[in-house]
Amino acid sequence: MSLISEGAEFNGTIAEPSLATVGDYLALLKPRVMSLVVFTALVGLAVAPGSIHPVTAFTALLCITVGAGASGALNMWFDADIDRLMTRTARRPIPGGRVQPGEALAFGLTLSAFSVVVLGLLVNILSAALLAFTIFFYVVVYTMWLKRSTPQNIVIGGAAGAFPPMIGWAAVTGSMAFEPILLFLIIFFWTPPHFWALAIYRMEDFKRAGVPMLPVVKGEATTRLQILLYTLLLVPLGIAPYLLGYAGLLYAVVSVVTGLGMLILAVQVYRERLPSDQACRHLFAFSILYLFLLFAVLMVDRGWGGLIARLAA
Hints:
Elements: H1 22-28, H2 31-47, H3 54-78, H4 80-83, H5 101-122, H6 125-145, H7 153-157, H8 159-162, H9 164-173, H10 178-201, H11 203-209, H12 214-217, H13 220-243, H14 249-271, H15 276-312
Helix pairs in contact: 1-3, 2-3, 2-9, 2-15, 3-5, 3-6, 3-9, 5-6, 6-9, 9-10, 10-13, 10-15, 13-14, 14-15
C-alpha cells in the first residue's frame, strides 16, 4: 500500500467536508482493544514498588490510552484496503467512507506524538521510550510488515500488546524488573491461541483479503495443534506469579482453575469434539475472560491495596 492515501491527491478542487462523527474517530482508536491495553498497564502500575503521585499515575494511564488508540488509528489507515474485503471490518470508518485515509493518518500521528512526548516530559523517559517502541512495533513491524508476509504474524506481532504492563511498571519505578517481564510473557503466549481461534472461524475473511494467517497458509489441523501447544506453555506461565512469590493464594486458585479451563477448551479445538466454529468461538471468548481474571486478581491480591496507599500518600 502506498504511503499516499487513496483519493488524497490534489486535483485542483477543494476537498469535500468529512462525514466523520465523533463516534467514527472513537472507532478508529479500537476501544475494545484499547481497554484491555489500559487495564493491563494499570495492573503493571499497581503492582510496581515505590510511590507515584495521583496526577502522575493519571497522566501515565492517559498517555498509554492515547498511544494505544493512536496505534489503532494508524493500523486502520494502513489496513483500509484489506478491511474493505473482510466482513468483520468492512464497516470500519475508513472502508465505510466516513473517514478519509489522510484524516486517519494525521489523527494517529498526532496522538502518537502527543502520548510519547507528554509521557516523557511528565512521567519519565523509560516509560515514554517503551510506549514509542510499542507504537512503532505495532504499526511498522506488525501492521506494515509481518501481517501480510508471514503466518507467524500474530506470534511476533503479539509482543506489541504485551508491553503495556511494562510501561505501567516503568511509569512508577523508572526501571525494569523480572515481574513486569513475566506479565509481558503471559500476554505474549496468550495472544496466539486467542487470535488463532478467531482466525479459524473467520478464515474465509482472511483468505479473501490475502492475509497469510496460519489457518489460511498451513490449514486448520496445524493451527489447532499450535493453539494447544501455546496453551500448554501459557498455563504454567499464568501460574508462575504465585510460584515465584509475586502473588498469594487467591491468585493461585484463580490461575489454576482458569488455566484448566483454557486447556480443556484448547483440547476441544484440537480434537474437534465440537463443530470447529463452535469450539473456536468458545476458546476465543473464554481467553478474554482468562486474561482479565488473571490480571484483575493479581491487582487485588498483590497491588490494589498498595496502589491506593501510594496514591493517598
